[in-house]
């Protein structure tokens, strides 16, 4: 599945949410995660769609944002799975 194909229903299924009370929150989370991934990697929307593993990073990040309402950082370490997937595609490293 490409990032551009992900819907709030997909995110809700991944998070095991079966009600519509949080739909507006999931809409915000979806937009925020796509923007985060794009800015983190420096990839265009088209380039992000070429890398379907980024979709899993989107799901993990979205679920993390929904469950914890924050991006979990352990000490100075970001979520290892999300960071490693995004690092593989980052073209704007300094």
Principal-axes geometry comes out as globular
Mean pLDDT: 87
| Total domain count | 1
Distance between the termini: 30 Å
Alpha-beta content class: mainly alpha
Give the helices and strands as they follow along the chain: HHHHEEH
Spatial arrangement of strands, main beta sheet: 1-2
Characterize the largest beta sheet: strand count, sense, and whether it forms a barrel.
2 strands, antiparallel
Q: Tell me how many strands there are.
A: 2
Q: Roughly how much helix do the residues carry, as a percent range? A: 55-70%
What percent strand? under 5%
Radius of gyration: 13 Å
Report the total helices. Answer: 5
What low-confidence regions span 5 or more consecutive residues with pLDDT below 50? none
Describe the structure.
It is a single chain. The protein has a two-stranded antiparallel sheet with strand order 1-2. It is built from 5 helices and 2 strands; from the N terminus they run H-H-H-H-E-E-H. Helix 2 crosses helix 4 and helix 4 runs antiparallel to helix 5. The chain has one domain. With 94 residues, the chain is mainly alpha-helical. The protein is globular and about 40 Å long. The N and C termini lie far apart (30 Å).
């Amino acid at each position: 599945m490409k990032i551009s194909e992900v819907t709030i229903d997909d995110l809700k299924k991944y998070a095991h949410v079966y009600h519509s009370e949080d739909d507006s929150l999931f809409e915000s989370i979806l937009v925020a995660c796509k923007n985060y991934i794009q800015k983190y990697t420096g990839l265009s929307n088209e380039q992000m769609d070429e890398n379907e593993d980024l979709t899993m990073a989107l799901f993990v990040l979205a679920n993390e944002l929904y469950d914890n309402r924050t991006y979990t950082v352990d000490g100075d370490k970001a979520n290892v799975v999300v960071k490693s997937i995004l690092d593989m595609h980052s073209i704007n490293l300094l």
